[in-house]
């Protein structure tokens, strides 16, 4: 049997590649992989950073939404995968058939392209996260570690504001829930202790904030050097890398950090100081919203949390490409209308279902662990990972159990999981951009040599482009906000595509159950709600910050 690397490009399905799907559980497991690649992308930037940050900001209240968000989105993912296996089409090919064309591309594909261009900045942030973690663990000049020793202006101002409130308006402080008061007190003590250890540097920082002077973070080089190393390694892997290498490497990286995180949470639960009680966990499953903050935006926090967890727009589009490279559609063969074909199609659709749901379990467990650690440690101390201190703040979630080894354990895992996101995202982009070139007629379909040449070339260009964006002095705020708008808008569009595939392009003999249809509709409705809200929020932020 030829390896996947030697198979023809995804545009053709020769009879020589046809074979029946496995029927036993263990043989089915050997055919899994596309979902694990997607999990590698999700667990990185989404779960490590965004979910832990949400736990640090919102507390236990949104646990139910975290779980729901991981589960409900997979039904659109399954529908896109189903269409690919049945028709042998890539995601962009399929979406390009949805009614509504402008020039040579469908309106959904145009929006996807805009999202991808603006989203390059986000990958620059991810390779920056890898650089931050490595710069802390293995400093070269030490400039980055020295810079992040001083708390951020936001953290110092938070401490000073609450100290002033406790002194001048004690009634406002005592009216807060007991848990919130304790969080403020402990967080303030922690920051004061850190500033005291810094001596004159710490007192100068506090004085600047008290005088309403801006604390400007210095430009550092250690994180840039390590980001360069990560980008060059990625170029080497993607230039010659095929599906098997990406799947195996991603699986190792994700498993490594996920087990560390789950182990940390279990260890936290064995302590008196850090454990979450059953009452707290049940409260997190009670379909509540965070307590209203000073600006009263509990609902905004909830919808933002739902939008960042589980599979996102980019992952939904890239999943069918990994299904194709794994061989699901190739092994099904071209649709000839025979009973044998329908049997193969149902068999490989079943394998795809197992792949999706097992990977969903993997990243849901990891997501919940990240979220609960954020609640148990960071939320209780009022810590919020952001900016150049993002990685060092996240590492504090591991201090209670691992002490002096916390940074090493977290940083090794963070490098692994953030790098897996950077690798998988760039690998996926090489496939989707190559497919776009085919839609535009720049690369002939069925040309195996040009197909892989395009992927190798893009594998050299994209990581370096991400690195350049991270290393420049320009502020990527506008681009990040624009990427947020496009991500929010694309989700409901992909929902439209999934519904089109399900109700207009799925044969009766391959239709799913009524329960799947209900879940698919719920998934699409959630896309519309969070997409509309996310676009409104990000667009409003963009307008207010730069045009008002």
TrEMBL record:
Domain of life: Bacteria
Record's keyword terms, sorted: Membrane, Transmembrane, Transmembrane helix
GO MF: cadmium ion transmembrane transporter activity; manganese ion transmembrane transporter activity
GO biological process terms on file: iron ion transmembrane transport
Segment forming the signal sequence: none
Regions crossing the membrane: 29-50, 56-76, 107-130, 248-268, 298-322, 356-381, 405-425, 455-475, 481-501, 513-536
Intracellular or extracellular location(s): Membrane
InterPro entries: NRAMP_fam
Gene3D superfamilies membership: Amino acid/polyamine transporter I
Any one Gene Ontology cellular component term annotated for this protein: plasma membrane
Protein topology in the membrane: Multi-pass membrane protein
Protein name per its UniProtKB record: Manganese transport protein MntH
């Amino acid at each position: 049997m030829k390896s996947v690397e030697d198979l023809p490009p995804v545009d053709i399905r020769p009879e020589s590649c046809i074979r029946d799907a496995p029927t036993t559980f263990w043989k089915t497991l050997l055919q899994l992989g596309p979902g694990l690649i997607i999990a590698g992308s999700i667990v990185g930037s989404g779960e490590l950073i965004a979910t832990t940050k949400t736990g640090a900001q919102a507390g236990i209240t949104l646990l139910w939404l975290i779980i729901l968000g991981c589960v409900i989105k997979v039904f659109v993912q399954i529908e896109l995968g189903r269409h690919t296996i049945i028709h042998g089409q890539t995601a962009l090919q399929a979406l390009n058939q949805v009614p509504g064309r402008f020039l040579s591309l469908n309106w959904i594909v145009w929006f996807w392209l805009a999202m991808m261009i603006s989203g390059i900045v986000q990958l620059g942030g991810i390779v920056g996260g890898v650089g931050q973690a490595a710069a802390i663990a293995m400093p070269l000049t030490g400039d980055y570690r020295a810079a992040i020793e001083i708390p951020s202006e936001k953290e110092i101002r938070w401490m000073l504001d609450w100290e002033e409130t406790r002194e001048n308006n004690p009634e406002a402080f005592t009216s807060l829930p007991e848990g919130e008061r304790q969080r403020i007190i402990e967080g303030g003590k922690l920051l004061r202790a850190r500033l005291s250890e810094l001596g004159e540097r710490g007192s100068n920082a506090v004085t600047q904030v008290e005088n309403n002077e801006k604390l400007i973070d210095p430009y550092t080089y250690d994180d840039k050097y390590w980001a360069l190393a990560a980008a060059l390694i990625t170029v080497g892997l993607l230039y010659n890398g095929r599906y098997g290498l990406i799947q195996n490497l991603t699986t190792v990286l994700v498993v490594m950090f996920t087990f560390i995180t789950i182990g940390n949470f279990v260890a936290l639960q064995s302590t008196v100081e850090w454990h979450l009680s059953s009452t707290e966990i049940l409260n997190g499953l009670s379909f509540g919203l965070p307590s209203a903050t000073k600006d009263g935006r509990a609902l905004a926090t909830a919808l933002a949390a739902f939008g960042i967890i589980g599979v996102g727009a980019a992952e939904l589009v890239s999943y069918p490409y990994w299904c194709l490279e794994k061989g699901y559609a190739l092994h099904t063969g071209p649709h000839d209308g025979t009973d044998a074909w329908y049997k193969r199609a149902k068999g490989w659709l079943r394998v795809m279902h197992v792949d999706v749901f097992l990977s969903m379990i993997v990243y849901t467990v990891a997501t919940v662990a990240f979220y609960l650690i954020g609640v148990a440690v960071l939320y209780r101390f009022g810590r919020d990972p952001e900016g150049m201190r993002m990685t060092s703040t996240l590492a504090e979630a591991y201090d209670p159990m691992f002490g002096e080894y916390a940074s090493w354990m977290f940083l090794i895992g963070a490098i692994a999981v953030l790098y897996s996101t950077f690798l998988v995202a760039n690998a996926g982009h090489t496939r989707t951009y190559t497919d776009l070139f085919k839609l535009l007629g720049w690369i002939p379909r069925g040309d195996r040599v040009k197909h892989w040449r395009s992927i190798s070339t893009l594998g050299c260009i994209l990581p370096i482009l991400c690195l350049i964006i991270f290393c420049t002095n320009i502020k990527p705020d506008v681009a990040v906000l624009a990427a947020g708008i496009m991500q929010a808008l694309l989700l409901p569009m992909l929902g439209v595509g999934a519904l089109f595939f399900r109700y207009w392009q799925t044969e009766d003999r391959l239709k799913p159950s009524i329960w799947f249809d209900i879940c698919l509709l719920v998934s699409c409705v959630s896309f519309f709600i969070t997409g509309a809200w996310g676009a409104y929020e990000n667009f409003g932020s963009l307008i207010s910050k730069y045009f008002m």
